[in-house]
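Per your request, structure below.
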């Protein structure tokens, strides 16, 4: 991953004329908001960072038994369809995005049902296939790329829908997607730029962009190496079967938006010194105005991927349709686990970084203060996926034996 300062702006323009004639999108809400002064100004630059952090004298935390459980184990009537994302609002109100049901389920802090927002359709407050949601103050936003709009709700009632169009002027191998609404009215976008037929090739770094009306500013770049792939079978010189999949050992950079929608966290996985048994990865925090407020590196010892994990992945992807050779040609198989499996910002501003995702193993999360101090490690049991940290609790998803999701709130036990 590389963070660009003003001197790198020409390189960004050369990649795809990012700032060329971006069609405006209609937004009464954005028009009312005070626009942030965004540009290509970042205080950090490639290769410049603080000294690598270490794990010396950090606290060891754990999570306790669930204090709240919502979903399948409560009975068939309570079961959730796949959950795309969740958000924690004021007073720990929980918002769950259920795209297959075209709605947002809302629960109070004690787990009581508060409301069900939205339904399938093209009308006001309706969804085609929503992909993300968030809460800014008392406003809930729901991203609906298929319908090319963002729906806004206040006090659980629909307020307005803001249409957007795909930006023009990007590199032809890029595709841009809206991922979050920012405080002040901007929209965060990311681009993907991977060659779909070669998991080891990425043509250009991906961009994190901020869009205000007809202006598109580059906030940062990050690596999407080996994020996705395609299983392909050839017959007579043509593709007879193709199936996309997510690379199990992706070395892609990780990003997250702060709960207050004012900052973006970037975690790179560019590694050096791996063969010597030690390495480090970078952690950068950016304000959406373009200022770098944190840039540091964390040291770690690379963990080899055991043959058993590789065999399990090959068997899972192969199924009954593809051969092991076809899978091996499409999969990214590094000798060591990528160091980072997740990243998020807690409501108190602390930084949470999920480490190596090993087979059937708990995951260690590194907890950093908002100033970059490494303050704790926390162990998350296998099968529990962290989605948010609010106050003294971790919110996440677990799946039952039928792969039906349910939500758990678990306390953080500090010791």
């Amino acid at each position: 991953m590389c963070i660009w300062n003003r001197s790198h702006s020409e390189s960004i323009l050369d990649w795809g004329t990012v700032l060329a004639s971006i069609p405006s999108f209609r937004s009464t809400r954005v028009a009312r908001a005070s626009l942030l002064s965004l540009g290509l100004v970042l205080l950090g630059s490639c290769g410049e960072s603080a000294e690598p952090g270490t794990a010396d004298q950090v606290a060891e935390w754990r999570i306790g038994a669930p204090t709240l459980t919502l979903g399948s184990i409560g009975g068939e009537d309570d079961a959730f369809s796949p959950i795309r994302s969740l958000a924690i609002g004021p007073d720990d109100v929980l918002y769950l995005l259920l795209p297959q049901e075209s709605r947002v389920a809302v629960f109070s802090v004690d787990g009581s049902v508060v409301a069900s927002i939205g339904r399938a359709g093209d009308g006001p407050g309706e969804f085609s296939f929503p992909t993300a949601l968030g809460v800014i103050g008392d406003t809930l936003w729901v991203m609906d790329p298929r319908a090319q709009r963002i729906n806004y709700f206040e006090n659980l009632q629909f307020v307005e829908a803001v249409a957007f169009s795909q930006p023009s002027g990007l590199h032809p191998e890029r595709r841009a997607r809206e991922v979050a609404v920012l405080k002040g009215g901007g929209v965060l976008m990311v681009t993907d730029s991977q060659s779909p037929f070669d998991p080891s090739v990425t043509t250009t770094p991906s961009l994190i962009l901020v869009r205000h009306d007809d202006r598109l500013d580059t906030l940062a770049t990050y690596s999407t190496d080996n994020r996705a792939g395609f299983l392909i079978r050839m017959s007579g010189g043509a593709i007879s079967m193709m199936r996309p999949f997510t690379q199990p050992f992706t070395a892609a950079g990780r990003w997250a938006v702060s709960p207050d929608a004012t900052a973006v966290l970037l975690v790179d996985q560019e590694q050096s010194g791996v063969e010597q048994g030690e390495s480090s990865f970078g952690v950068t925090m950016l304000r959406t105005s373009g200022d770098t407020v944190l840039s540091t590196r964390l040291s770690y010892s690379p963990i080899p991927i055991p043959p058993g994990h590789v065999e399990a992945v090959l068997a899972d992807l192969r199924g009954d349709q593809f051969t092991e050779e076809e899978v091996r040609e499409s999969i990214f198989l590094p000798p060591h686990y990528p160091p980072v499996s997740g990243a998020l910002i807690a409501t108190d501003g602390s930084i949470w970084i999920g480490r190596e995702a090993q087979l059937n193993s708990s995951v260690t999360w590194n907890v950093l203060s908002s100033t970059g101090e490494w303050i704790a490690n926390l162990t998350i049991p296998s099968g529990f996926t962290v989605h948010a940290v609010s106050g003294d609790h971790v919110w996440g998803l677990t799946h039952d034996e039928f792969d039906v999701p349910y939500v758990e709130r678990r306390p953080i036990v500090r010791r």
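The longest strand covers residues 238-246.

Regards,
D.
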